Amino acid sequence: MQPSQLRSLTTESRNPNTMGISQANPLEMLQMINEEDMKVAQAVNRVLPHVKTASDFAYESISNGGRLVYLGAGTSGRLGVMDAVECPPTYSVSPDVIVGIMAGGDSAFSHAAEDVEDSEEAGKQDLVHIHLTSKDTIVGIAASGRTPYIIGALNYAKSIGAKTVALSCNEQAKISELADCAIEVIVGPEAITGSTRMKAASAHKMILNMLSTSVMIRQGKVYENLMVDVKVSNHKLKERAITIIQHVTNAPYEQAVKTLEAADLEVKTAIVMLQTNTDKKTAKDLLNKTNGHIDKAIAHHQS
Fold first, then answer.
1. Which of 159, 161, 160 is nearest to 57 (CA)?
2. pLDDT tens for residues 77-93?
3. Among the options 12, 60, 86, 120, which is catalytic?
4. Tell me, which fold does domain 235-302 have in CATH?
5. Closest by CA position to 217, among listed 206, 228, 204
């Protein structure tokens, strides 16, 4: 892309509302930034149908033994990695199911390696390295919508039949042309020109939250609005698990504790045990028969 084309991108445009931010007092600076941030949720709302399509892709992939793979450079890569690594403790999903790939590798998460984003081959090779297959869904994240690293990754993913999603913040983004699903969330110029770690990153974080969360809900890892597949790995999470059990079953605290421990610290198993008055083995069998959905497991027992 020529320099003139880069400057024409929305993400690189100057924001007329913040021209005086460097002369503003600290409170005024914050107000300007906050006013711009308020536009983010509205922009995300406008692309929800496209996010739904991406969610469908990811759900089908995971349901059929595939993966949801996020891939990006710089801030975009960090957002994908953060969303991926938070899913195992929240939903007890294997780290191999939702994967975050950062251009430049793990070290680039804390130390900027911006030059890597200019290599299409690097994007391809990072997917080759994880043995991407046609069962997988890849989400290429790039605020500008033109990052060569993402272009290389999307081209390779399509060549092997994987589902592809392009997430950007510019209309008619280059990466949109390469994807089965294009999400162009237009948040407008940044408060600080070109600083896409601000509104663009906030929009992308919201969309990634929606994407992974909606898939996990559909996988039966949420009951009502409770994270019933939370991994009990410390005292705080054990107390959260006990509270969840009590919310659903109205069991006294001591009974909830006893049942959780009898259920190998599996919240869903404990809930089904209490709601069906069965033992651990029966509860687990019910959940296995209903793909981990608590409501279906209980209904199956009652039928």
1. 161
2. 999 999 999 999 999 99
3. 86
4. Helicase, Ruva Protein; domain 3 (1.10.8)
5. 228
**Structural class in CATH, domain 3-218:** alpha beta
Q: Which residues, including other chains, have CB under 8 Å from residue 120's CB and lie 6 or more apart? A: 148, 149, 151, 152, 155
Residue that has been written with the tokens 């589902």 in this structure? 163
Q: Of 257, 262, 295, give the one whose Cα is nearest residue 276.
A: 295
Structure tokens at 247: 């919310």
Catalytic residue among 36, 117, 190, 266: 117
Is the pTM here over 0.90, yes or no?
yes
Q: Report yes or no: 139 and 54 within 8 Å, Cβ to Cβ.
A: yes
pLDDT, position 112: 67
State yes or no: is 36 an active-site residue.
no
Structure token digits, residue 88: 């195992």
What pLDDT, in 10s, does the model give residues 111-156?
766 677 889 999 999 999 999 999 999 999 999 999 999 999 999 9
Active site (annotated) includes residue 35 = no
Q: What is the mean pLDDT of residues 154-160?
A: 98
